[in-house]
């Protein structure tokens, strides 16, 4: 679906992206790259119905003769609805010739992440005037091994109920971004039937495959 937006605000975000300067190898850099502004030119030009009608006339004449007008355009993937639970899936494989190879590189991720630089200026579920959309880490899935064999383990935080999150899920009321600290709790490492208490630094040093955040 293509919608007409004010060109001045179409690519605006809740917080200034240019102030980010994310470090390569971090989850911020991944999000920054995923939501970057792309130019669609040459073979990637966008089919423009307005341009086509302006040049060839009504659509009924276009379909019969298969004439279309393509134009240069800009594309950007941004978050239009801030979810109660944010799940980030890291692509941990790459093509190596005809084979797939696992990527073992450590990706830095924080306990609290701000999605505002990656949200549209009119993002839903965000209170008017807020310039932060904060999430607290509560779960991590880690994979050890290779593409052919390996083992999945998880880190989970035992914590008290997030009443602000309940209000968002049950009543759709966006929370005010006042809390900037992670939700307090104890981290545990779960591997099959073995469960062990661990520090937050241990969690943040893991080779994350899946990240789970809850809205603050």
UniProtKB/TrEMBL annotation:
Is the keyword Cell membrane assigned to this protein? no
Checking PANTHER family in the record gives: UBIQUITIN CARBOXYL-TERMINAL HYDROLASE
Full protein name: UBP16 hydrolase
Q: Name one GO cellular component term.
A: nucleus
- The answer to whether UniProt assigns keyword Plastid to this entry is no
* GO BP, sorted A to Z: protein deubiquitination
What does the UniProt keyword field contain?
Hydrolase
CDD domains the UniProt entry points to: Peptidase_C19K
Q: Name one GO molecular function term.
A: cysteine-type deubiquitinase activity
Origin species, per record, is Upupa epops
């Amino acid at each position: 679906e293509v919608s007409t937006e004010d060109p001045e605000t179409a690519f605006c975000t809740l917080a200034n992206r240019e102030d980010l300067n994310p470090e390569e190898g971090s989850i911020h850099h991944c999000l920054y790259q995923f939501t970057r502004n792309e130019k669609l030119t040459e073979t990637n030009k966008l089919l423009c119905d307005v341009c086509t009608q302006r040049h060839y006339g009504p659509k009924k004449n276009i379909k019969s003769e298969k004439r279309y007008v393509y134009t240069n355009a800009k594309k950007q993937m941004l978050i239009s609805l801030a979810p109660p639970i944010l799940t980030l899936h890291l692509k941990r494989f790459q093509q190596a010739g005809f084979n797939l190879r696992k990527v073992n590189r450590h990706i830095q991720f924080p306990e609290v992440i701000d999605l505002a630089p990656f949200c549209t200026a009119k993002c839903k579920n965000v209170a008017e005037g807020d310039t932060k959309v904060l999430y607290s880490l509560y779960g991590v899935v880690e994979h050890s091994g290779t593409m052919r064999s390996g083992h999945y383990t998880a880190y989970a935080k035992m914590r008290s109920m997030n009443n602000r999150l309940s209000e968002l899920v049950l009543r759709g009321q966006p929370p005010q971004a006042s809390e900037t600290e992670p939700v307090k709790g104890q981290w545990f490492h779960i591997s099959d039937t073995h469960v062990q208490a661990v520090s937050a630094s241990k969690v943040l040093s893991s080779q994350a495959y899946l990240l789970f955040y809850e809205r603050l």
